[in-house]
């Protein structure tokens, strides 16, 4: 030992000194030749084990034992030798009139991020308990100090809760040995003690400082030079900061994305970034799987049905696995008034919420519920900045290492959402340089939309990464995209072959061509393409054949899908007018200037459609409006 414990054998007394170690002392606090008070904690054939502190014990060999001892007996010993490897060897010591001195452990808390290099060492951690999980064996206290997160195993009896007074959220001091077990790296604890007084204040501040430092987004430049991204950059950094902070605090993240290509691109990028950052900062290799959930939203808003399911899962994870409630992240969705009923559910549980969307926002409606709301409309831009573009940047700010794998994804998202942004040329060049030419990027978009239809409420974990071309097998990616595109195009051709025979075409007084098609009678339903995609395909066909302005209405038994080119549809106003004119029609719906859908009760179908045509007659011709940001309702 180079440095001794905090006592002075040459004190101004000739009385022998016997040391009492504080519970959190480690083998570093003892010194050969010194006397210690201990307790017998094991009796074996070859001697007795004597414990001096939770993490300090050694052997009195039977050859030097002076009496019989039982577990629990108090005993004063002299430390004869610290053996190579750290085992302690004691001899019994009988000292009359000895002076007792208390030895407090002087420790420097070890940053959790350095534990990978300390396997086998006894360490001291100061941190916050972020999860308490009872296993069939030990109790796992998952501890975060702002630099990383590590499970600390404490064993009472198999399946019995250790330290029952210590709960999630407490700041604690952990002493234990860093071990690599069947479940990755963990600390086998000797002691966990709640921090108090000055130590508590100091640890709280240290954890906050470390969190601020480690949660700060990575320093990266945007993939392309674009003033729109510059205007959004602070918001994107704020989202990245919240994702990193959640990870470092052991908080799960739930990502809900619109179930189209742009939404999938955005959701998968965030998921990949989180998984990477969690793997870097959490000792448990299963943490990425347990802490990230990505799910599609079939509706173009957060449905109450979905939030109910998400909250149920979160509460169950809290009760069964001691997890914190998640951070919710809405992408390519979440900016509208229709989202607020679900947000009220989240608010009831005090869960944080972040939104990255590029649909025309109702900021007043959603912002009371949202901690960070990123939307190009809020900085003077529009849907042409797609959420896939935004979230690839957020992903890079969380985990810059995935830049290369995702460099073609903004182009895929932009093409799928028909972005006409000037920056598309740069994104396409970037994709091309990565081996994804424009035709292939379009094919990925079609394949992802088709896959999303069949995945329904499933995230398609693994498969969807291969479709996007961010998986690890380029050959499989190509094969999968070819397959899905063939199938999707064949299904659309089949749908068009039937439906195009039954178009009801008229010209409104304004000169707008109105095309109606009864999807219930003339389209395959409950299969791909769904009514939104079917109506879009018919509409695109008509525009190609006849030119603008055109409105296409795909009609179902209790819904209608609307698409237009060169005409300004104000769908929210139409919904209001229809409800005013038709009592009991129960009209609802939404959308944008050129795409949307409405629902109504089936019994009022004819009346609603008639009134709808009257509404269309007043629609304003606007040649600048094309098929922008088509958020198709996947009605089926
Ligand atoms: Mn989108």
Q: Summary?
A:
The protein is of the alpha/beta class and 636 residues long.
Structure explained in plain terms:
The protein contains 17 helices and 25 strands. It folds into four domains: 2-106, OB fold (Dihydrolipoamide Acetyltransferase, E2P) (Beta Barrel), CATH 2.40.50.140; 108-214, Beta Barrel (OB fold (Dihydrolipoamide Acetyltransferase, E2P)); 216-441, Alpha-Beta Complex (inorganic pyrophosphatase (n-terminal core)), CATH 3.90.1640.30; 503-621, Diaminopimelate Epimerase, Chain A, domain 1 (Roll), CATH 3.10.310.40. 35% of the residues lie in helices and 24% in strands. The termini are far apart. By secondary structure, the protein is α/β, with parallel strands linked by helices. Helix 5 (304-321) packs parallel to helix 6 (340-348), helix 9 (409-416) packs across helix 11 (438-455) and helix 11 crosses helix 13. The model is unreliable at 1-11 and 628-636 (pLDDT under 50). It has a six-stranded mixed sheet with strand order 18-19-20-21-24-23, sandwiched between helices. A five-stranded mixed β-barrel has the order 2-3-4-6-5. Manganese (II) ion binds at residues 262-263, 332, 358, 386-387, 417.
- Radius of gyration based on Cα positions: 33 Å
The kinds of small molecule bound in this structure are: manganese (II) ion
Helicity level: 25-40%
What structural class do you assign from the helix and strand content?
Answer: alpha/beta
| Strand fraction | 15-25%
How many distinct domains?
A: 4
CATH architecture of the largest domain: Alpha-Beta Complex
Shape: elongated
Count of strand segments: 25
Compute the number of helices.
17
């Amino acid at each position: 030992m180079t440095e001794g414990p905090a006592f002075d054998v040459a004190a101004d007394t000739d009385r022998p000194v016997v040391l009492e170690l504080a519970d959190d002392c480690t083998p570093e606090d003892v010194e050969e030749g010194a006397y210690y008070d201990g307790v017998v904690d094991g009796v074996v054939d070859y001697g007795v084990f004597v414990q001096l502190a939770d993490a300090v014990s050694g052997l009195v060999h039977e050859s030097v034992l002076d009496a019989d001892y039982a577990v629990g007996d108090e005993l004063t010993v002299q430390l004869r030798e610290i053996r190579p490897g750290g085992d302690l060897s004691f001899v019994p010591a009988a000292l009359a009139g000895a002076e007792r001195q208390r030895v407090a452990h002087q420790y420097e808390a070890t940053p959790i991020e350095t534990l990978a290099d300390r396997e086998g060492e006894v360490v001291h951690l100061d941190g916050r308990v972020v999860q308490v999980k009872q296993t069939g064996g030990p109790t796992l206290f998952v501890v975060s100090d702002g630099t990383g997160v590590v499970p600390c195993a404490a064993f009472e009896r198999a399946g019995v809760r250790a330290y029952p007074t210590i709960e999630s959220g407490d700041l604690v001091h952990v002493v234990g040995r860093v071990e690599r077990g069947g479940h990755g790296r963990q600390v086998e604890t000797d002691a966990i003690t709640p921090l108090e007084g000055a130590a508590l204040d100091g640890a709280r501040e240290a954890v906050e400082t470390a969190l601020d430092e480690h949660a700060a987004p990575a320093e990266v430049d945007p993939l392309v030079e674009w003033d729109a991204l510059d205007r959004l950059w602070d918001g994107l950094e704020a989202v990245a900061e919240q994702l990193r902070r959640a990870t470092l605090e052991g908080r799960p993240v739930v990502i809900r994305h619109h179930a189209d290509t742009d939404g999938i691109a955005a959701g998968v990028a965030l998921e990949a970034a989180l998984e990477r950052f969690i793997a870097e900062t959490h000792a448990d290799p299963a943490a990425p799987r347990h802490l990230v959930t990505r799910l599609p939203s079939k509706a173009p808003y957060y449905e109450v049905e979905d939030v109910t399911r998400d909250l149920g899962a979160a509460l169950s994870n809290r009760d069964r696995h001691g997890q914190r409630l998640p951070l919710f992240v809405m992408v390519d969705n979440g900016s509208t008034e229709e989202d607020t009923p679900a947000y009220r559910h989240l608010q009831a549980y005090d869960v944080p919420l972040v939104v990255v969307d590029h649909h025309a926002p109702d900021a007043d409606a959603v912002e009371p519920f949202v901690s960070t709301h990123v939307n190009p409309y809020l900085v003077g831009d529009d849907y042409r900045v797609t959420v896939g573009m935004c979230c690839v940047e957020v992903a890079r700010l969380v985990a810059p290492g995935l830049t290369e794998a995702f460099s073609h994804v903004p182009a895929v998202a932009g093409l799928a959402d028909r972005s006409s942004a000037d920056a598309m040329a740069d994104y396409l060049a970037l994709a091309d340089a990565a081996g994804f030419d424009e035709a292939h990027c379009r094919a990925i978009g079609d394949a992802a939309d088709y896959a999303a239809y069949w995945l329904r409420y499933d995230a398609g974990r693994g498969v969807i990464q291969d479709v996007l071309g961010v998986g690890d097998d380029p050959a499989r990616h190509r094969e999968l995209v070819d397959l899905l595109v063939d199938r999707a195009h064949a299904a659309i051709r089949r749908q068009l072959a039937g439906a195009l025979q039954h178009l009801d075409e008229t010209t409104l007084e304004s000169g707008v061509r109105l095309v109606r098609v009864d999807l219930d009678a003339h389209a395959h339903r409950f299969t791909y393409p769904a009514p939104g995609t079917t109506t879009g395909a018919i509409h695109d066909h008509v525009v190609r054949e006849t030119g603008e302005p055109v409105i296409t209405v795909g009609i179902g038994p209790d819904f209608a899908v609307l698409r237009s080119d060169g005409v300004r549809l104000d769908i929210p106003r139409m919904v209001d007018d229809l409800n005013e004119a038709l009592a009991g029609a129960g009209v609802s719906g939404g959308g944008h200037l050129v795409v949307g859908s409405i629902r109504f009760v089936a019994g009022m179908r004819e009346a609603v459609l008639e009134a709808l045509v009257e509404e269309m007659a007043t629609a304003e011709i606007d040649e600048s409006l094309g098929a922008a940001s088509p958020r198709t309702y996947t009605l089926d």
